[in-house]
Sequence to fold (302 residues):
Amino acid sequence: MPSWTDVEQFLITGLSLGGVYALSGVGMVVLYRATGVLNLAFGAVGAMGALIAWQAINHWGFSGSGGFWLAYLVAVLFGGLVTLAYGMVFGPALAQRDPLVKATATLGLALILLGVMDLLWPSSGGASRAITFPTDNNTFQIGQISVTYTNVIALVLGLVITVVTGAFLRFTKLGTAMRAMADDREITAALGVPVRRVTAAAWFGCGCLSGIAGVLLADLVALDATTLTFLVLSTLAATLIAQLRSIPITFVAAIVIGVITSEATPISSISNYRDMTPFVLAVIALLVLNRRRVISIGRQGV
Fold:
């Protein structure tokens, strides 16, 4: 068993990862509620944004603290623009298709981006790449644990985006339109809601969040195209636990997944299976929710 110090240190890491999974999950839930599309390309878009930021810092002269943040802004804008472009080109054709077709279409985008990244930044025989936030060098102590401000940024940003997005959907006209489209797209359009503008905002917002998640995970985990692309599975598990509807539940589920996955790392007997954590938690949650639904339906039929 790991020491208590190890448990505390991996708790910090888990909370940071959970914050990133949370903001990623919020982006996926909002896009799904507005368009019905489950964006499986979320991780690939973020990964390519992170690699572009690395390229800007190391080869395009984006040096210094100001240059670092400008490179990260480029990564975020890349995520927003490429996702928006995909949504505007393919979104209308996908609007009336089955959910499976919508998800498969975004999986195709993920594979295309993976191929482009492997072509431009080959992993085999290539130089080691890493993204380091300026805040990585600024630390403070909690007991015996050293915490970087990057850890704090990841967790706080996940919480802030969750709260702000929830308020946006509830109190703004655009957010209300997104919620209405989730219930009935055709009726919403008939009422005069600018459907194309609303869906464009959802695609762009989701893409920007993928860019933020990409650069944060590149710092917290590794700057590797495949690794970052498939970390979307942890986010996907959190959104499934929330049934692709509840933003607060998405946040809680993401934090739980991040913490449990991280805490399993120092336990040698189960560390090799820690990547299964999102799937196990999602399956358990879905089974429990489905059981409650069956019981509720059964009682109504009595």
User: Anything to note?
Assistant: The radius of gyration is 20 Å. Residues 4-301 form a domain with the ABC transporter involved in vitamin B12 uptake, BtuC fold (CATH 1.10.3470).
